[in-house]
Specification:
This protein has about 550 residues and is an alpha+beta fold. About 45% of the residues lie in helices and about 10% in strands. Strand 3 and strand 4 (about 400) form a beta hairpin. Helix 1 (about 5-40) runs parallel beside helix 4 (about 85-105).
Length: about 550
């Protein structure tokens, strides 16, 4: 049996007490009806008088009944609260009622068979009518006082039915003083009622053996024993717990680690943008663009292109004697056969160790004249510092002066004639190889700031590039010096007297801060062409014959 709730126990105790009240009421009602029936039967009628005359008097001896045994006294308050006592009281009432009915049947004279049958038939009809009325009327459970319980008639045979037809364990009992709810719309078929009775009978049969025991357990508040094995909580061992914890360990899950790392990176603050390092400046002109340049068409004795550079490995503005020697060794090394091709490599002249006569031999070379260094030929010869010298390539059209001025390196590509395109291409090739070799040896290139090379010539701006032409203009020489200078400035050229010969000038290209290498070269070519055309007009004006000049 299933365990009943405390509410179910209270309802069952109430039903048990109700049964006891009903039994006592029924006994009292039967006891009240018997004297009335006896009195009615004792009334004198003609038939009874005649029968009494005819029947002989028979003496009836009443058998002496044994005196009932004295029962132990029970406290009223304990009896009320004891459910076992109430249940035994119900059984005692039923038994005493049956014994009293038997005694009355023995003492009362037997009635006629016909009257008895009629009375039984009428009683059955009345009982059936009462049952039908009770079924039709809504059942209301009331708590009836003991004094009013004598008014109700109760059939003793219904006590056992009332006990066995106790409500199923799942159905809640109605509370005291409240009407039980019924569905008036439900119509019970005969088959359904038969099934219900079968189920009830089956439950009764299953509970026949332990019915009294279960009733006593319920009324006494004890829990009935459950059938089957009791489920006990299994104890988990420490090893099992350790295994479970290990199975939940996700610290070594690579996929989860990737997801968590991605979430961490997404949630992290954005790092500060790295400063963008601009590439170092270079001699920015392509060889293809140089190949498409047009050379000037005027009379030009020589042309040169010069670059002023300082090495980042020697950051001091004024180098010491040891630093100058180290710079000299570096230039000898990078300009050797090991690093440079044949047209770039050559030999080095240490001007500090040469006497004035040896120095004059060096300055008599044509490349010195074409490079714009003709002033070295004039006495007095300039003093050279330790580590100062000139590097000449094998073809003597490229020179590198080291430690000769405010700049560490002065690289010049020069040749006779007007082929400025070849001069610039040679210079570009040489400076690229030199810078690459210096970076390979010192891990640094040329000194620069932002996108501008650092040098001492402010009029050359960011490129440190100088482009010059050596020309002979006898027509301009007949005019005032002011005339040629103004004409040169008008066409982007700076005109200066060059050497001792008459009519010899150096034309240097004027630059702007925004100029590129290509713009500087283009301005030089156009300016030289304009100067040549003006020279031709001045020759005609002054009737100068160039053949006589060359002969002289």
């Amino acid at each position: 049996m299933e365990e009943k709730t405390p509410e179910g126990k209270a309802d069952f105790n109430f039903i048990t007490s109700l049964v006891a009240h009903c039994v006592t009421a029924a006994v009292a009602a039967n006891a009240a009806d018997k004297p009335a029936a006896a009195a009615a039967s004792d009334e004198p009628t003609e038939e009874k008088v005649a029968e009494k005359k005819e029947e002989p008097k028979v003496e009836t001896k009443q058998e002496a009944k044994p005196a009932p045994a004295e029962q132990p006294k029970v406290d009223a308050n304990e009896a009320k609260n004891d459910p076992n006592f109430i249940t035994s009281m119900v059984a005692h009432r039923v038994v005493s009622h049956d014994s009293e009915s038997k005694d009355t049947s023995k003492t009362s004279p037997p009635a006629k068979k016909e009257e008895v049958k009629k009375d039984e038939g009428e009683a059955k009809k009345e009982e059936v009518k009462k049952v039908e009325k009770k079924q039709e009327e809504p059942k209301v459970v009331k708590s009836v006082p003991y004094e009013e319980s004598n008014k109700f008639a109760f059939i003793p045979s219904m006590v056992s039915h009332f006990v066995t037809s106790f409500a199923p364990k799942d159905t809640p009992l109605p509370a005291v003083g409240q009407a039980a709810k019924q569905d008036s719309k439900k119509s019970v078929d005969s088959t359904d009622s038969a099934k219900d009775t079968k189920q009830t009978q089956g439950e009764v049969k299953e509970n026949e053996d332990n019915a009294d025991k279960n009733v006593r357990n319920v009324t006494s508040g004890e829990k009935p024993a459950k059938k089957g094995k009791s489920k006990q909580a299994k104890e988990i061992s420490a090893e099992t717990l350790a295994a479970l914890e290990k199975s939940w360990d996700v610290s070594k899950d690579l996929d989860l680690a990737k997801v968590l790392n991605k979430a961490r990176l997404l949630g992290a603050a954005k790092p500060a943008p790295l400063p963008q390092q601009k590439p170092p400046p270079k001699f920015a002109i392509s060889v293809d663009k140089l190949a498409r340049l047009e050379n000037p068409v005027g009379r030009i004795d020589a042309c040169r292109a010069t670059l002023f550079r300082n090495i980042a490995a020697f950051p001091s503005k004024e180098l010491s004697s040891s630093e100058r020697l180290d710079l000299e060794k570096l230039i000898k090394k990078i300009m050797g056969v090991r690093f440079m091709p044949e047209d770039i490599t050559g030999y080095y002249e240490n001007m500090f160790k040469k006497n004035p006569r040896e120095q004059m031999k060096v300055f008599d070379k044509e490349v010195i004249f074409n490079s714009g260094d003709v002033q070295y030929r004039d006495p007095p010869v300039s003093e050279w510092k330790e580590g100062s010298g000139i590097y000449f390539n094998n073809y003597e059209n490229l020179i590198i002066k080291t430690n000769t001025g405010k700049d560490q390196l002065i690289i010049t590509s020069a040749e006779s004639g007007h082929d400025i395109r070849s001069v610039v291409v040679r210079l570009k090739r040489a400076i690229d190889l030199i810078e690459e070799t210096i970076r390979a040896i010192t891990r640094k290139g040329f000194q620069h700031k932002d996108e501008a090379f650092i040098h001492s010539n402010k009029h050359l701006y960011s490129h440190g590039f100088d482009l010059s032409f050596i020309v002979c203009y006898p027509g301009f020489s007949k005019e005032e010096e002011k005339y040629i200078k103004n004409f040169g400035i008008k066409h982007g050229l700076a005109v200066t007297k060059y050497g001792k010969r008459s009519g010899l000038y150096e034309l240097t290209v004027s630059q702007k801060p925004e100029d590129s290498i290509g713009a500087i070269i283009y301005r030089a070519v156009q300016g030289v062409n304009q100067m040549g055309q003006e020279e031709d007009s001045l020759l005609k004006k002054h009737k100068i014959n160039l053949d006589n000049i060359h002969e002289n």
